[in-house]
Sequence to fold (523 residues):
Amino acid sequence: MNAALSAKNLCAGYHGSEALKDVSFSVTPGDYIGICGPNGSGKSTLVKVILGLLPPTTGEVSLFGTPQSQFKQWQRIGYLPQGLQFFNPHFPATVDEVVRLGRLAGKRFPKRFSREDALAVERTMEWMGISHIRGSMIGELSGGLRQRVLLARALVNDPELVVLDEPTTALDPETRENFYKIIYEMNREKKVTVLLVTHDSATIGKYASHLLYLDKQVIFYGNFDDFCNSTEMTGFFGEHGQHLVCHRH
Amino acid sequence: MNITEMLSYGFMQRALIGGSLIAILCSVLGIFLVLRRLSLIGDGLAHVTFGSVALAMFFRLQSVYLTLAIIPIVLACAMGILKLAQKAKIYGDAAIGIVSALGIATGVMLASIAGGFNVDLFSYLFGNILSITSSELIIAAVLFVIVITGVCIFYNDLFASTFDEELAKSSGIDTDRINAVLVLLTALTVVLAMKVVGIMLISALLILPAVSALQIAKGFKTAIVCAACIGVCTVVVGISLSFSMNLPTGATIVIINFLTFLCAFAARNVLRRS
Fold:
């Protein structure tokens, strides 16, 4: 079986400074990977490279066995950023218009929406519990609801790989917990491969099957049991630090 | 003067039809430009148009030939702004500033060298839709069809890139290509809009109907339809008023647009309170 995602000797950076150094790993379909690391450790850069938003300086990424430069089936991947890049609270888009945008992925010219797209939008909005606000303007929603709408946009194609870049940073603890649960259930029930970037290394062990700890390079990649039993990691994090990540409530 | 009498003049019929077509283009593209914070690209391209008009006049081109001659120049400059912003690592507004200043400088330089067409050239600064000829109207109609077809074909990609460029890219949309499409369609529209409100006021026709619509619209498609309606109404009212009261057409259209914006702004506040 092809890996859902693999990175080989990946280096990337901005304006001459290196944010990722020789990063290699491979993700088996159905895995739930928590990507952790300190600020500036290259987590978001890695996500950008995976999604083709930033070209790597060297190395390569493959998505479902296809080199990323030739990959066209973007409907197989759902992406949820931390927030919108330059979000304008007065942007005149309704919730269903935003969710429908997700269906553009993988469509060919001329990109038109069909009845099938309408049904997928409907189904996803119901699943996310946002059908009742379909006509609301995206800028008028609370931060939590807005992230839920963007999650719906990311999931509207029933993707096989979901990439989430610190999706819960701006959310309150209760909403955050709900968010994690939705993603966890999706991983368990639909066998969707999940890549979740988070600062929250203490909670991620509760949901993720694997940990990718980055600090410009891969410090650790494997399942949580291996992490917890690794003396090398005890040396790196100290016993307390390792226990915090291992603390799988 | 009553409406029937006003409409009986051939030049008024042409002005109203041409003005409406151009207003629709400006308003529709205006929504994308305003939301992408590219509002001033209209101004920059208008200044380039000034230089191009001077160049065309330098070679003694007039009317339709002049319009046809400046289209490729303005399209090339539009791409120049994009490339400058991408390759020279400068922000878009600085790129617009550079190209726009270059446009004006070229215009003034050519006018000075030729010495003879200053009056004609400066008439382009404030436009005169009432003098639109039948052949110019045909060009406007052809360009209208081209631009509207372009917007319809790329509508979903344009919407996605306007909403969030990074998200659009992650869906496999070539946002650089979509940006180029938007800027080229805007360049074509600016060349046409020069006739309606003149080079100095083009950005008003791109920005004002769009921002008025954004005050009241509830959805993206609604915003576009709303902007187009506001654009057409303000241009029609502006042309009619300027004709009956002997006022400058371009300026009248802009002032009516601004009043419409004030009304939309007030309506939004009233709706929000209720």
Q: What stands out?
A: The first strand of chain A starts at residue 5 and ends at 14. The two ends of chain A are 32 Å apart (CA to CA).
